[in-house]
Amino acid sequence: MAPGADSLRVTLRGVEARHAEAVAGRLRRLFDCEADPGAIATCLAGDPVLAPLVAARPGLRLPGAWDPFETGCRAILGQQVSVAAAIGLAGRLVAAFGTPLAEPMDGLTHVFPAPADLVEADIALALNMPRARGTAIRALAAAALADPDLFAPVESLEAAVLRFTAIRGIGPWTAQYIAMRALKLPDALPVGDVGLLRALATATGRPTAAELLARAEAWRPYRAYAAQHLWAADEAAVKAQ
């Protein structure tokens, strides 16, 4: 896959022709091809912090999820750790419980574990991480096995948050992140996220989660896109330090 001029060029390997249309649909969802960048920019440009960020990264999209269950697991692994640490944990999870490919392809060696692979696994021991996080992944796996529609579209963001916070070990931050990435809800916002608060910091300090939530009312219905811009700015600032 390579970026083109206002398009994506995709090369499919090992995919039967009859599946090509379904794969293309998932790719459009993954890369947020149905977004309306103009409407999003108009909405967010009214915020003095977001305005230059939107101008610097016009058309920034909201990444989706190829596998919603994998995204849910990655959200749990990312609780209270850096992005780099979460990526490392995900790699170890796949190495420990994923299915090896008979023929590795372009650096891909394993398939991400299915819910059945994780529902009884001792994840915390294998990954040397807090037991509560391993318990949460097992609970998510159990919920996915019990309800095939766990990651199906919902009528509202509030319904999605209620659905996922009912699972042991999943709080509002994780539920909002899953809603954002796996369910593609454009108004999802992980309010207490450290990166968001850091990106909005001023000379007097960072805003509180409550202050961020109040400010974000003006970003509706595109709060998830505002989060993407703030995360991108925060990542750039951290790298520059």
State the main characteristics:
globular, single chain, Endonuclease III, domain 1, 241 residues, mainly alpha
Question: Could you give a short description of this structure?
Answer:
The chain is mainly α and 241 residues long. It has 13 helices and four strands.
Helicity, in percent?
40-55%
Separation of the first and last Cα atoms:
32 Å
Radius of gyration over all CA atoms, rounded = 19 Å
**What class, by secondary structure content?**
mainly alpha
The whole-number mean of residue pLDDT values reads 93
Assembly type of the shown chains? single chain
Share in β-strands: 5-15%
Report the CATH architecture of the domain at 68-181: Orthogonal Bundle
- The CATH class of the domain at 68-181 turns out to be Mainly Alpha
Q: Report the major sheet.
A: 2 strands, antiparallel
- CATH topology name of the domain at 68-181: Endonuclease III, domain 1
| Spatial strand order of the main sheet | 1-2
Q: Helical stretch count?
A: 13
CATH superfamily of the domain at 68-181: Hypothetical protein, domain 2
Low-confidence region ranges: none
Total beta strand runs: 4
C-alpha geometry: globular
